[in-house]
Amino acid sequence: MAKIKLQNVRLSFPSLFRKAVFNGEETKFEATFLLDKEAHADTIKEIKAAINEKLKTDLKGAKLASDKICLKDGDEIDYEGYDGCMSIKASNNKRPLVIDNDKTPLSEDDNRVYAGCYVNAVIELWAQNNNYGKRINANLLGVQFYKDGEPFGDGGVSASVDDFDAFEDDDDFDI
Predict the structure, then answer these.
(1) Residue 16 lies in a domain
(2) Which domain range does residue 50 map to?
(3) Are 4 and 54 a contacting pair, CB within 8 Å?
(4) Which long-range CB contacts under 8 A does 159-162 form with residues at least 24 apart?
(5) What SS3 class is residue 35?
(6) How many domains does the chain have?
(7) I want to staple 82 with a disulfide (CB 3.0 to 4.6 A). Which of 18, 20, 74, 145 is the partner?
(8) Are 29 and 95 in contact (CB under 8 A)?
(9) What pLDDT, in 10s, does the model give residues 114-162?
């Protein structure tokens, strides 16, 4: 399998602490990573070369439709923030390593990793060739928080401590 490190990429649709749910059923831990076409040109080239190698060696030169390959052109996807990027979705049955920028473990309660933040990630490409078809997929091995970014959709925390007033337990409230 081809292990690839993604650096300073935007995180989208993260299910890092709990398995994603699709049609009411738990699936896998997963995330989509956005690679800017210019800033990450070398990494995109590395991913494409690894995909081509998997097609050549593991799938005996099979030609696959673009929807059967984990790397997608963001300009063809109708989601906020995908324009000008390539996206790669990675998943795993096992929970991936999720750490902060100082390498300390993160939990869901930390609210540090969210859709729209920037992360480093380690993925591993693999070729699927079974009764479910032929595909090039990516295993999600680990994610490291890199820096904050503009949250996608309803990501991030919308309230802060400053939004509230302090009060004593015995204060009377008129309703």
Answers:
(1) yes
(2) 2-152
(3) no
(4) none
(5) strand
(6) 1
(7) 74
(8) yes
(9) 999 999 999 999 999 999 999 999 999 999 999 999 998 754 455 666 7
